[in-house]
Model the fold of this input.
Amino acid sequence: GVSAVLCGVFGLLLARNAAALRPPPRELAASGIPARLTVRDYRSAPGGFNVRTNSSSVQFQRVELDLDVSPAEGAPYRVSVREYLAGRAFVKLAPGAVVAGYVDRADPARIFIDWRAR
Done:
């Protein structure tokens, strides 16, 4: 009855949010194709969270990024991805900004953005 419907709705919401909070595909730094990523545009996306430690708190905001991808192998292309960014990463986020990343060989829309690269 009603409890089954509520459990189903709760399950769908949990599954959707679990996918949204999935960690970035860091393994692509070892297995992916290196790429230059140019930010065309960005905007806020639903979601965000805080991580608290004993001495500080870091806020993560979800953003949608429109990127021009220039892989080391293959033709350039455009893609939109959603990413959680800590406040310090926003310094690198502006239209025209170039960041390093890696592209999945099997799925070019799957990208790891290396915010720590210089």
